[in-house]
Amino acid sequence: MSEKKLSSQKIYDGVVVKLRRDKVVTDSGVETYREIISHGGGACILAVKDGKVLLEKQFRYAYGEEIFEIPAGKRDAGEDFYLTAKRELEEETGLIPLNLKKITEIYPTPGYTDEIIAIFFADEFEKGKINFDETEYLTSEWVDLSVAFKMVENGEIKDSKTVIALLWYKSGLKI
Fold it and tell me: Sign of the CA dihedral 47, 52, 53, 59?
C-alpha cells in the first residue's frame, strides 16, 4: 500500500511546525488530499534512580492544563536524537546521563504529522546545570515508580511518550 504525491502546497512555515497540503493518488486511483504537519522531532528520557522516576509538571497550552511528562524536548535542526536527549535532560533537570540508552522511536500522531520521538533510558547521572528556555516553566520531582504506574492507570499521566516509557519499564523489557 502506498500513495503517490501529485503536488504540494506550503500553508504555514512556523518556528516549531510547518503545514503543507499534499494532493495524492492512492493505489486504487483515488485522488485526495493529505494535510501534514512537519516537525523536527524530539527526544525524551526515562530517568530512574533508587526506585523513583523523574517526572516534570508543565502547563501545555494546547490542552489548557498542567500535565506530567518525563523530561523531553525538540531536536535542533540536524541534531542526533542522542544529543537531544542528553542536552534536554541537563537543561531541564540539571542531570547529565552517564549511561543513556535508546529504547525506541515512536510516531506520536501518524495521521497528520511526520514527528518522531526517540525514547531513552538512564539510571546513572552526574550533576550538571539547569538552563531553561526563555518561555519554559516546569517543575521536576522524583516519584516512586509504583505511584507513577498508578498515575498511568488512573489517567493522571496522559502524555503518550511518558506512558510508553513507563509501561516499557514496568514490562521488564531490556534494551
Answer: negative
